[in-house]
Amino acid sequence: MEITLDKIDLQILNIIQANAKISNADLAKEVKMAPSAVLERVRKLEQKEVIKGYTTQIDPLAVKQTMLAFIFIRTSVGFACSTNAATLLAALPEVQEVHHIAGEDCFLIKVRTADSSSLMRLMRDELRKIPEVSSTKTTIVLETVKEQQQIIIPEK
Amino acid sequence: MEITLDKIDLQILNIIQANAKISNADLAKEVKMAPSAVLERVRKLEQKEVIKGYTTQIDPLAVKQTMLAFIFIRTSVGFACSTNAATLLAALPEVQEVHHIAGEDCFLIKVRTADSSSLMRLMRDELRKIPEVSSTKTTIVLETVKEQQQIIIPEK
DNA sequence: CTTGTGGCCGAATAAAATTCGGCGAAATTG
DNA sequence: CAATTTCGCCGAATTTTATTCGGCCACAAG
Questions:
Q1: Within 7 Å: CB of A33 and strand D?
Q2: pLDDT tens sequence across A73-85
Q3: For chain B, where are the alpha helices, taking DSSP H only?
Q4: What is the phi/psi pair of residue A19, to 5°?
Q5: Does the beta carbon of B99 lie under 8 angstroms from any beta carbon of chain A?
Q6: CA at A8, C1' at C25: how many angstroms apart?
Q7: Do residues A123 and A136 make contact, with C-beta atoms less than 8 angstroms apart?
Q8: Which listed CATH number (3.30.70.100, 3.30.70.920, 3.30.70.20, 3.30.365.10) goes with A60-140?
Q9: What is the predicted pLDDT for the residue at B155?
Q10: CB distance B69 to B141 below 8 Å
Q11: pTM for the complete prediction?
Q12: Closest CA to B3 of B38, B52, B53, B50
């Protein structure tokens, strides 16, 4: 089953990725179609998992999550880059992203915690528990200028 | 004006960050309150900008965005870390994140493009345009195991 | 004690989502 | 080429939901 998105699908995605809670009626107006037709398209995009979910962006500071860090992780298995380690990393709620990367290191993860001591605890208690992890290199974020996951959607 | 969130606010945030499109009626049931009261709380969380927005997560592959990279950027102005450069970087639609980081480099940015050639184009045409950028160090993502922006919200 | 403030409830109303029968274009089949 | 199926869309009917608003209660300030 091949996924093909037409111009209107892309228009819809473009609108709802910026505002997930736009009313279906308004969305229909924007793409100049009947609400029922648009709803049908959105449902199909959900089924095809082009739409992966709807999330609310929350200010991390408001819920006392002040620390953000990126950690490069090297594994002992060498170039194999254990998927087991990846799974364990991904299971940690503080870990927002786990990427398998090119280069000497194996993974790059993005971690958000309450403060520096909880980051330390995470590294000592959680990362050390993962056998394949041989070394880490941590980059602390001092200030975030921009942070969004909106992606570029082609016109056509 | 100090922001204080009570237990129910945190419950609400926890629910809606995982599912922005839950109906207000269902949300009210979950926190055991009247729909009108919950709506009032949500509106206030929006006003206080604890809630920063509602977004739809879209599969990047479905819209032909296959390349993901992290780029460390060093600036010539030294430790100053020009906010001008930060602003210019943040203005690029391919750039999803701009972080000011501790260490030798100044910025870490997260970039998503269609493919490797469009990443090259971005670096050649856009990054080079920014005068303060003196050098870059790019990390290519081969595979993403986890990617979410959900943050940990305390129980209380 | 009185006055205000804030948050909540619940019913009434307005708006929205959702369903569904039918239509027409395009593709498929015999 | 005609018959048939499929698909996406429309639009009205229906159901569900959001939203408004008056009133109530608890708490705090005067």
A1: yes
A2: 998 875 567 888 9
A3: 7-18, 24-31, 35-47, 83-90, 116-121
A4: -150, 90
A5: yes
A6: 18
A7: yes
A8: 3.30.70.920
A9: 82
A10: yes
A11: 0.92
A12: B50
